[in-house]
Design a protein that fits this description.
Helix content is 51%, strand content 13%. By secondary structure, it is α+β, with helices and mostly antiparallel strands. It has a 5-stranded antiparallel beta sheet with strand order 4-3-2-1-5, with no helix packed on it.
Length: 188
């Protein structure tokens, strides 16, 4: 794969992605330095790849950069999903945290702005109120797995209609907001 990318670069350099060109050049110099035991090629590879000029550091950095195309692809596909949220993005981005600055440089301005918006919206405190879909906050309660909707607020407490109580005589129960959490199920 590496050799075929270099061959394509030799025939026609990328017009829009100079980063990819530099990355591949650095990897080529790494291979050259290893094959010929050439100190100058090793130093040049270190400069281009952004690492220390040691074979181990360069090999580690090259290994990281080999993940870059897959990282960008995975991140772009999650961002392209309609209704993408911070948690979906973060689940993918965590896998590539070690090369965050590298993949960040590959993303478009619109993609980076979307990521910032998702992050900002996730850190804003959400308040449980009428219409919120909730579950019990205590994971040891059976209601932790059940979903309900806040239907009323009475004297500082919220009234929840649990989905699984729809056929029961008692259809609602009141809770303090601390006893509940936002529902994290697939239907949210």
């Amino acid at each position: 794969m590496f050799v075929s990318k270099l061959s394509r670069l030799a025939q026609e350099p990328p017009k829009e992605n100079a980063q990819e060109c530099l990355r591949l050049m650095g990897m080529a110099l790494k291979n050259l330095a290893s094959a010929m035991n050439n100190t100058q090629a090793l130093e040049a590879a270190a400069i281009i790849l952004g690492s220390e000029p040691t074979p181990i550091a360069i090999a580690y950095r090259a290994e990281q950069l080999e993940m870059l195309p897959q990282a960008v692809s995975d991140i772009r596909s999650v961002l392209a999903k309609p209704g993408c949220n911070w948690q979906e993005f973060w689940n993918v981005a965590q896998e590539y945290e070690v090369i965050k600055s590298d993949y960040w440089a590959e993303l478009t301005t619109q993609e980076t702005e979307l990521i910032k918006t998702l992050e900002n919206s996730s850190t804003q405190p959400r308040t449980i109120g009428i219409g919120s879909t909730v579950a019990h906050a205590d994971p040891y309660r059976t209601l932790y797995l059940e979903r309900g909707e806040v239907v009323d607020e009475v004297e500082g407490k919220v009234v929840v209609a649990w989905d699984h109580w729809c056929n029961e005589l008692k259809k609602t129960q009141s809770y303090s907001r601390e006893e509940l959490r936002f529902w994290q199920g697939e239907n949210q």
